[in-house]
Every structure is written in C-alpha cells, then in structure tokens.
Design a protein that fits this description.
By secondary structure, this protein is α/β, with parallel strands linked by helices. It contains 27 helices and 29 strands. The strands form 10 sheets. It has a 4-stranded antiparallel sheet. It has a 4-stranded mixed sheet with strand order 10-11-9-12. Helix 10 packs antiparallel against helix 11, helix 19 packs parallel to helix 21 and helix 19 crosses helix 23. It starts with 9 loop residues before the first helix and ends with a helix.
Amino acid sequence: MSEISKAYEPAQVEAGWHARWMADRCFQADAHSPKEAYSIVIPPPNVTGVLTLGHVLNTTIQDILARHARMQGKEVLWLPGTDHAGIATQSVVERALRKEGKSRRDLGREEFIRRVWAWKEEYGGIIIDQLKRLGCSCDWSRERFTMDAAYSTRVTRAFVDLYRRGLIYRGKRMVNWCPASLTALSDEEVIMKPVHGKLYYIRYEIADSPGESLDAPGEFLEIATTRPETLMGDTGVAVHPSDPRYSKYIGRQCWRPFPRAKIPIVGDAKIDPKFGTGVLKVTPAHDKADFDIGARHGFEVIDVMNPDGTLNALAGPEFDGRDRFEARDLAVAKLISLGLFVREEPYEHNVGYSERADVPIEPRLSEQWFLRYPKVAESLEAVSGGAIGFTPARWTKVFEHWMTNIQDWCISRQLWWGHRIPVWYRIGGEGEALHVDVAPPPDPENWRQDEDVLDTWFSSWLWPFATMDAETEKKFYPTDDLVTGPDIVFLWVARMIMAGLEFREKIPFTNVFFTGLVRDMQGRKMSKSLGNSPNPLDLIEKFGADGLRFGLLRIAPHGQDIRFDEKQVEEGRNFANKLWNAARFRQMHGPSTPEASLEGVELSPYSLEIVAKLNELIRGIETAFSEYRFNEIAQSLYEFFWSDYCDWYVEAAKTEIFGEDFAAKSSALAVMDFVLSRFLRLLHPFMPHITEELWATLGYKAPNHGPAGRYLMYAQFPPALPAEWRHGELAEARSRAAVVYDSVRRARNLRAEYRIASNRKARFILRSPPAWAAGEIPTFERLINAEEISLQPLYEPPPGVPGVLTEMGELYMPLTGLIDAAAEQERLKKEIAKTEADLAMVSRKLGNPSFVDNAPSAVVEEHRKRETGFKERLEQLEKMLKDASQ
C-alpha cells in the first residue's frame, strides 16, 4: 500500500489509470457472460469532430450509466464509434484540394475517395482519443465506423431490402438544395432562422390593359416578394378566388417584367389575401408552395438557377453567372429603371439554412431517391405506449407531433464520400433498366452505377444493431439507454426506432435521456465565432478530467440547458483536492480496515449520525439514478462529503482520534473506513480516476463483480443499510448529535457577532446543561475552538458578558482579553449610526402615503421587511455596545 502524496496531481493519476484499464481490457464486454446485460451505443460523433462541452456532458452521462451498471454486477457493453459525416468530411477534403488549386473532379472519384480515407486515417481518430482522455469506459475493441466494410454491407442490404418492398423509389420532386455542398437535404437537415430581410413591392402590367401614355397609365397588379431575383422564373400569378380586389383579373394575363413574357393570372384557394398585397408571383422551380400551385394550374417550370446558387442563361444575359444575392440587387435596379418598382420595407421572416454548410437553402426541382418511412404507427405506439420512455417526458409530445406529420425522406445526396447507392443502369439500354442489389451486375462493363450516395443518417439509423455481430446482438440488443440531444430526435432517434422495428422487429432501446444544450452565462449557444466556447482539453489540463466531469454535471439541470461557468469546473477540481486530503488524513492515522464493517463496534453519536446520513445519501442516489437526475446526485455527493463528512464528522471525530482511548480511536477510524469505502463507490461513476487511485491506495475491498477485486469499477455499488440497523440506539444518538451541532452553529455565530477570529481560542461558560452534556464537552470545545467550556449550572453572568441560548444550555462568552473594548465600542457606534440612518430612510418612505398607495405591493412589502430587519439589528447592536462597555 503506497502513501498518499501531499498534493493531488490529476494528470499523473488519470494517465496512469487509463493505461491500466486499457492494458487489462477492463471495458471489454463478454457476449457469453451469464450476467444480466446492460448496453448503450454511443451517438457516433462526426469523424471530423473534436471534443466539445456538449460531448463532455453527453459522454460523461453515458459513462456514469455504464460504470453504475458494472457496479450493479451487469455485463456492460458501451459501444463506441464515429460517423463518416458525408457533407462535413467531403467539405474538409475539398477545402484542402482548393489550396492545391484542384477540385475533386480533377482527381476523379476513385482518387478523391482515396484522399478522404487518407485524411480519415490521419485525423479521424482525434475525438476518440479525446474521449479516452475524459475517462470514457467504452469497449474500444468494438469501435465501429459507418464506412467499415461490414457496416457498409448492412447499409447497402437495407437499401436493397426496402427497395424490393416498394418503400424506396426514385422521383422528381422539390427538395431542399444546399448551394454550398451541392446536394439535396432532408427537411430535418434544414434549420429555420429568423432573418431581417426586405419585402419588395413590384408591379406586373395587365396584358390586355396597357397604358397609352404617361397621362393614361394602364392597369397593374402590385406584388410583394422577398425574392425578386427569381422573377425570371415566374410562369404565373395567383390570387385568392374570393378576393374582391382581384376577381376581375382571374383568367387574364399579365407581363412578366423580364425576360418579358405573358403569364396567366389564376385563382387559387391557397393564397393568403392578408400577406403583402394578396397577389403571389408563382415561380414553380424555386418554391415548394409555388410548385404545388403551378402543378394544379399546369404552369411551365423554368429553373433559372444553377446548383451553386448562381443564375443561368434562362434568367437573361445580364443575370447569367451572377450569385443569387447579387442578382437580387440587380433585379431591383432593373425594376426601378423600368418604372416597375414601388417600394421596399424591412421584413423579418424565417429562412431555411443548411444545417452543415450554414447557408440559405434553395428549393429545387430534382430527381432523387426517396424512402416511405416504415413502421410509423408501431414506432408511435412504442413511445406513446411507454415501451420506450423519454426523459424529460415533454419530448414525447414533440415526437408524436412529428411522427403524425412526416413526409417521405429524401435519402440521396450528390456527394462522393459515403455509401454509394446500389443501383446500376444499363448503358445504352432503353427505358429505365435497373439492377438493384448488394453486388454489381455480373457484366459490370454494360452498366453504370448511380453517382449519388446515401444520406449519412440512412447509415446511422441502423447504428444500434448494425454495429453488432450476431453474438453481440444476441446478448446486448435491444440496448438499454440512449443519451442524446433533443435536436436530433427526428434526424436520429425516431428513425432508429423505425429501423429497429423494421429490420429486427424489436425496439432499439428502452430509455432515451435528452440532455440540454451547453450555453454561456449570457444564455448564448457555444460557438467559435462568439469566442465563448472553451476547449475541454484546456479545462482537463487545468482542472483534470474528473474535475471537468464532476463540475459540469453539478450544473446540468435535469434535461435543461446549462449555463456554463468555469468556476464550477474549478469547484470540481477543489472537490477532488478535498477528497484527496481527507483520504490522506485517514491514512496518516494507521492502516485502513479493508472490509470496513461496523458489526460489534461501539459508536459515538457523531459516528452514528454520519452513517445514518450516508444511508440517506445512498437511498437518495438510488432514486435519482432511476429518474436520470444526475446533477442531483452530484450535488448530494458534494454536500455530503464536504459538509457532513469533512466539516462536521471528521472534526468531531478528531476528539477520539487524538485522544487517549484506543478503543474510541479505533471506532472512529473504522467509521471513516466504512464511510470512505462506500463514498468512493458512490462517487466512482462521476470521478473514476481519483476514486480508483484512493481505493487502491487505501486498500479497500468490497463484494466484487470483476477480476479478483483489483478494480473499484467492479466493486458492488453500495446498498443501503437495512431499516432495523442499530434501531435501538440510532434515534437517540442522532438527536444528541443534532443538538451538539446546532449548539456549535449558535456558538460560532456568537463569536462572529463579536468578530472573534475562528482560529482564536475563547473561553465559554455553559449554564443549565443536560446530564449528558459533560460527555460531549471535549467535542463541543473542539468544534467551537474553545480554550475551555466550564459547566456552571448556577452561573449568573455579570453585565457585559454576551450569551446565546442553545439546546445544551445557556452559553456565555466572557469578552475579557478577546476584544479591544474601546475599538469595539467605536466600531459599534459607527454601525449603529449607519443602521439608524438606513432605518430612518425606510421609515420616511413608509410614512409617505403617496409611496404606500402607489408603489407596487411587493415593493412596499419589501420595505416593511427591511424596516423590521433594521429595527432588530439596531436592538442587537445596542446590546452589543452595552456589553462592550461593561
């Protein structure tokens, strides 16, 4: 057993334990174990990712659940891995190519994919290494990647199976298009953002009522639009058929300003007469609603935009090649020159942005592959019926709303990095001759494969079972818990439920815990652009991984957003130091008791009180774990150890430890071992490194679920003591300890009133003590730093001796030799004067009928409370001045 060093060095301790855990394969799950299974699959971070505070929160919670399950004797699989992140990864590599003056098309598909794999091998494991540094106890031998060969085969097979069942089809439809990534997106990958834009009012001339001169202008329809740059694609104008302002124009035509052409005016019930002027320019190729209107009325579809967001030749020569936002200004200028521009006004509206590229998306008519979602009703019932529990429960309603309003999923992406769609088209063949299979056709030279890849989410919706081989799946599927953010409840959680029911006829998990977002102290989302997102690795360097984990969990309210403050991580480090020093104090007083049993040991009231408090802690933690209230567990662990154990029990036990009674000392040390050995187990899921270190150094043992009791992580999570434990003596002992502790608080307050430093000895007199008080005087003296407490049942305090009533009797503190009477009198006189001035000010306000009658009732009540407080304080100060003057 080694000696605990004076200072806790987290970097050294954490690196040492990680190496030991990995060398002994502590986290590997045994698919053949007879133990009850417990499993989690990690939400796979992007292979382009690095550790963020969001990752720290999410993975720490998963690690807590996994370590807690191990300590319950379960066979635990926490399966890690990364996602290939099609758009993000391809963008990273393409940026690198641009620096070389090249594009992916210069390289060709095969060479480009080789470059991506090379990038992945060099940089793709960064976040995994960072998670290991955080202390994540994943089964790293089962690490998966969504582009692994075996995983890719499962993805391809899923596409083929769904296609053959008629659930996957190809069609030309309006999709969300990302002009930066040059690919289609699903609705769930579009983030709506409020934008401060403009509403432009323009005029379209009625074709059969042209103006003859400036003095005899023709008829015009005034139209309000946010996108004048698309008017070149207008193929119609629509009004509500019941709108009396425009009914006379239905069936006629108007002139599109440029390229100048006649377009029809129709009535359509979908038009909102209250928006703008009530007249809509219909651009079927560039708006989903316009496309539907155009389809109903047979409008031509004219696509005036290139995939990259520039305009094409159909928009006219002056617009050809112009960026869409540049074209907007140019279109307004041209309308002004034609006399067709009316005005513009500020307009705030929601605009869809690409989740990955963070640019406004474009609705675009495109041929894509779509999936009709399977098992929708069954998935809805699984959550609504309680087979899958959502925590917090409010997300159930959000899930139900989405499931009852879902659209077919656009699953094809115009990328090269990803799972290529397993569809081949016959070269030179007539019609749509398709070969859809996991393997290419036997004569591949006569076929060409679809150029597109599958949406990244199409691979990750299979994650809970596609990551497992047959033996692993048999033991560990369905999984138990999923920890994720509510922002992907549709993108991932809902889809995994449907995939599990479709491909395995089982739900993929039993419980889903949704974490909150990590925000700064102003409530802003963390981002590099705002400079408010600290690097977790810097925090680990400064405070240790355990300090970061514990500090973050303490401020993570149940399923709510977190206001991050580095001071809380500092408190996590300080807590680790407190634990370290407390363990060192225990070690300094002799060898520990490995099994830490209290059977047959006579215990002081303070020992019984701390054991009872520990028992309450264990019961509370059991309940909190079942309700996923991790921050409550962290806070209760903090308060118990810092206050109940260190501040109260250890200080009280020093009376026995430093005393001459060997049996009493042994008893106190046995209680310390009993509490510490259990507390380390309770804390281990939150702070795994320091608890393993102290467990090993102190030589503790416990009922064990792992190899030869070598690791704390396999020690039995401590059960609560039975209700009948020490039943006969516990209530009286706890009552006595409570009386002593309350008396200590009152005595300390008395000292504080007279500004007697806590490290300065003071003499006290206790009048009318109960019979049992004499036995507790040594502990009482230690806790209030008394030079002496004299028991004088008939003591009559002379004038000037302050006192306080406690449950142990009347406690007096003679001031002789403790204070400079003259200086204290001067101080008290100044404080009395200030308090009198404060009281007079408040009383004047309350004496003013205008204030009392007109001020808010809460303000008036607050002033009354302040008046009462000042009066009480004044009375106290005057008594203290009288005492100091005796």
